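step 3/5: co-fold with magnesium ion
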Amino acid sequence: MVRIIGCTKSEINFATKSLLRGNLVAFPTETVYGLGADAQNADAVSKIYHVKGRPTDHPLIVHLSSTKKLSTWTKNLPEYSLKLASAFWPGPMTLILPRSNIVQDFLTGAQDNVAIRVPSHPVALALLTEFELQGGLGIVGPSANKFGKVSPTTANDVVVELSLNLKQQDLIIDGGTSKVGLESTIINCLGIRPEIVRPGAVTPLMIEELLGITLVSNASQHSYSIRVPGMMKSHYSPSAKVFITGEPKKGDGFIAIAEIPTPIGVIRLASPKNNIEFASILYESLRLADSKKLERVVVVPPKGDDIAIAIRDRLSRCSYKE
Ligand code: TXA
Ligand code: MG
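step 4/5: write tokens
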């Protein structure tokens, strides 16, 4: 049975040593929980693919404690990527950057680039800082769920997802509920202009305002210049069938912004007051549908050009397709 630990200094030290020995450590971030491994240890990284049931050509995000560590992993960075890094890190953003020589093919699906993120969750930062102090260079961390399933936003979700697959020596650090609740915005920084390949809490408007540009490619068009395997059309799915159109039937789960009334006979799973709250409770509410053994959940996609873009993106991927 996998062990859950807290986030005192000695527990972070213990988790660091465990990572450096090649074990897996699930850790909290402000987006979702990650399944961590030493990014330089091929055996540890292969355990991640095995535990998640994920195809090995799907690249992994390397998490760092600070933008200062970027030069170890990357080279020839475009100016705009540095502006993005200083504006939005630590935070819910991942940059795809040209990789340096230390990056090995087992992290990147043999692509000539690497995905980097500096998370803002204090426990993630404490773990990364300690890991780097003790000689590590970075921690890879895909979301700590089975391939294609809903990302976890609490330590207990990680237990439900992965406890059958994790080993006794692996750990889960309990750092509370992930505040953002949706995975990071991924931005391709390999071209002359940035391209959002997975929408998240860092929105197109925020990027356009920072860089003074208009983003050409829209993530909802699903046409990217690089391969992003996690952006397949079916992903982030609970066991219940999710519907984003049509009328709910009696006994269906129902998720919608608070001002939308509950149709008669349905089970209201969440009534978020705004889009930020919608993002933070979406995955938890889909998990609730599964724990109630509901067969169907109707979700009314929120409107807006803020984090609602990311919510609609995940809903379109997890919703039922005939
Ligand atoms: O919020 C997040 O990003 C979370 C937390 C734990 O940091 N992590 C996360 O990782 O969502 P993951 O592996 O579940 O999703 C990352 C996505 C995958 O679809 C992966 O294929 C893609 O990013 N990706 C990673 N590195 C890439 C690269 N070098 N080029 C293109 N896509 C990449
Ligand atoms: Mg994932």
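step 5/5: annotate
The radius of gyration is 19 Å.
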